[in-house]
Structure to design on (341 residues):
């Protein structure tokens, strides 16, 4: 099962390279330019044109851009953007709101590098971005959340720092309460980046009743929230069996089955994956699914027939077939429980 970055759907993926990669890329551009513009004529051969063509305005601009990229100080740029945001943090003028959006976007591009993301934290950027998550403008809020998500992804230092600042609770609150669906999507994205592969953040997710927030997102009418919440739940379950007891006590299996029994949606693939994990790894969850009052076995039989031959639903079909096999193994007749097995 793929458990890579979703992206919030944004598809952004940060690599481990820093400024060195940027400089190396610029040097390669210069080398390519030099090769393309170096004459291969022998000095003894007559030439119809001058030995060296004068730089055109376009070529001059290109060279200036390349060398400027090589010499840029990205930490200095980040500090300037952060200081600007600090100065207009509480301003609600149209001009300053536009400035906030612009600076957040510039910081987002810079923080694609893990090195820069760590410097962003040291420069106080995390505190500024968290403050902007409460900005009156939804355009500012979602950009601030997007930036926070980028800075913590695959970055234990930044994950821990944001967690210590109450970032997880803030993101869950935004996910539950914000009026803008785009802000809620970015909040969920930030939650995902914060808790993936970070034990302390995952424990905090349980303490904050974060799985209930994920369930509410799946039950919403926003497709992106449904998909991303189901994906995160499934990914966490396959990474960490320790959640099984918590989710069993929440009645998660029954709630997930209820979602599946509604109108068929694309995100049901991830929901079915989550149910399969819970049922195959926890006796209590298995008993919940076997409860004949849910009619889950009949539902699975119908779902398998519905999905057979449809290539776009191959993963969901596979999960459904595995669940049906568990029913046939443990409950030849509906009603068997773990005590009977």
């Amino acid at each position: 099962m793929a458990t890579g970055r979703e992206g919030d759907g944004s598809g952004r993926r940060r690599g481990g390279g820093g400024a060195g990669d940027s400089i190396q890329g610029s040097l390669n551009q210069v080398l390519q330019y030099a090769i393309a513009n170096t004459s291969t004529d022998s000095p003894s051969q007559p030439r119809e044109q001058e030995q060296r063509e004068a730089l055109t305005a376009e070529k001059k601009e290109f060279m200036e851009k390349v060398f400027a990229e090589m010499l840029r100080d990205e930490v200095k740029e980040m500090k300037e953007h952060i200081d600007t945001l600090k100065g207009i943090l509480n301003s609600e003028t149209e001009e300053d709101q536009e400035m906030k959006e612009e600076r957040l976007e510039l910081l987002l591009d810079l923080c694609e590098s893990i090195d820069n993301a760590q410097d962003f934290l040291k420069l106080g950027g995390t505190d500024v971005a968290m403050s902007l998550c409460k900005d009156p403008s939804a355009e500012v809020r979602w950009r601030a959340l997007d930036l926070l998500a980028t800075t913590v992804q695959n970055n234990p230092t930044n994950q821990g720092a944001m967690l210590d600042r109450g970032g997880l609770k803030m993101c869950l609150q935004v996910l539950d309460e914000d009026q803008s669906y785009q802000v809620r999507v970015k909040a969920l994205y930030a939650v995902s980046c914060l808790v993936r592969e970070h034990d302390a953040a995952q424990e905090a997710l349980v303490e904050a009743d974060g799985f209930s927030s994920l369930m509410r997102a799946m039950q919403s009418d926003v497709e992106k929230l449904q998909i991303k919440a189901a994906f995160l739940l499934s990914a966490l379950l396959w990474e960490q069996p320790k959640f099984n007891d918590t989710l069993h006590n929440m009645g998660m299996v029954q709630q997930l089955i209820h979602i599946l029994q509604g109108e068929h949606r694309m995100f049901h693939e991830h929901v079915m994956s989550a149910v399969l994990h819970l049922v195959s790894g926890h006796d209590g969850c298995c008993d919940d699914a076997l409860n004949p009052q849910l009619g889950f076995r009949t539902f699975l039989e119908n779902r398998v027939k519905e999905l057979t031959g449809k290539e776009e639903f191959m993963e969901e079909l596979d999960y459904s077939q595995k669940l049906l096999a568990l029913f046939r193994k443990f409950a030849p007749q509906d009603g068997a429980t773990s005590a009977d097995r």
Summary: The mean pLDDT is 85. The CA atoms of residues 192 and 300 lie 29 Å apart. The radius of gyration is 26 Å. The chain is about 70% helix and 0% strand.
